[in-house]
């Protein structure tokens, strides 16, 4: 009996070590897979954000407070995206942007907080209104050519059409300028008498900015927009 009692603690210690090393092994596998598929998981978190946008929700969100301090914007790493996906209540969507030729369809949200820019295109001034003066939007350029504002760099050219909607009206613009500018050139965000839409994203290096500027063409009631445009707005957002 004494020998059996002595062997029991030894077996328990041995089992505990086995459990420890097995757990450690599993954790290492999980961490390794996370590192390997970090980009894919991040892209999935972005693509899974598909908010429902209505006239009622837009009207409500237009009154919400937002951050317009671009100096506080961080690079789009995994933790930033995960935090944004967890805190979608802080994202106040006020419309959509559709660029069929560039394959861009994104929610537009108030401000340029990290949460907003991780999942949408963000408005850059608190006073801007679709179809009135300059309507600037910012968005991230990622390694994927299809997510957020990445297609601006790869696919957008002068002459293409830009559609904005607040769920009540559709505003049509034609791309008139495609230009690389210094990151310090903030004047492009200023209000103008001319009706414009100004889209800003990073260049390939991240040091400078790509500016896509569209000139106003016309506006119409949402229900009177071409069927192809309505279908575009009803389709899923392009973060895939």
UniProtKB/TrEMBL annotation:
<keyword id="KW-0378">Hydrolase</keyword>
<keyword id="KW-0472">Membrane</keyword>
<keyword id="KW-0788">Thiol protease</keyword>
<dbReference type="InterPro" id="IPR005754">
    <property type="entry name" value="Sortase"/>
</dbReference>
<dbReference type="InterPro" id="IPR023365">
    <property type="entry name" value="Sortase_dom-sf"/>
</dbReference>
<keyword id="KW-1133">Transmembrane helix</keyword>
<feature type="transmembrane region" description="Helical">
    <location>
        <begin position="20"/>
        <end position="37"/>
    </location>
</feature>
<keyword id="KW-0812">Transmembrane</keyword>
<dbReference type="Pfam" id="PF04203">
    <property type="entry name" value="Sortase"/>
</dbReference>
<dbReference type="InterPro" id="IPR042007">
    <property type="entry name" value="Sortase_A"/>
</dbReference>
<protein>
    <submittedName>
        <fullName>Class A sortase</fullName>
    </submittedName>
</protein>
<keyword id="KW-0645">Protease</keyword>
């Amino acid at each position: 009996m004494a020998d059996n009692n002595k062997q029991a603690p030894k077996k328990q210690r041995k089992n505990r070590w086995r459990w420890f090393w097995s757990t450690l092994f599993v954790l290492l596998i999980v961490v390794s897979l996370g590192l390997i598929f970090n980009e894919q998981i991040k892209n999935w978190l972005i693509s899974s954000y598909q908010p429902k946008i209505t006239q009622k929700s837009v009207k409500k969100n237009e009154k919400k407070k937002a951050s317009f301090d671009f100096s506080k914007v961080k690079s789009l790493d995994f933790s930033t995206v995960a935090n944004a996906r967890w805190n979608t209540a802080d994202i106040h969507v006020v419309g959509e942007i559709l660029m069929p030729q560039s394959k861009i369809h994104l929610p537009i949200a108030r401000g340029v907080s990290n949460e907003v820019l991780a999942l949408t295109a963000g408005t850059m001034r608190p006073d801007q209104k679709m179809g009135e003066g300059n309507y600037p939007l910012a968005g991230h350029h990622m390694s994927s050519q299809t997510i957020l504002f990445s297609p601006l760099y790869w696919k957008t050219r002068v002459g293409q059409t830009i559609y904005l909607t607040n769920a009540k009206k559709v505003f049509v613009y034609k791309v008139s300028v495609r230009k690389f500018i210094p990151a310090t050139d903030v004047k492009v965000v200023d209000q103008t008498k001319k009706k414009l839409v100004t889209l800003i994203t990073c260049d390939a290096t991240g040091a400078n900015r790509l500016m896509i500027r569209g000139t106003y063409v016309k506006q119409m009631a949402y229900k009177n927009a071409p069927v192809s445009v309505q279908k575009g707005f009803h389709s899923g957002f392009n973060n895939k």
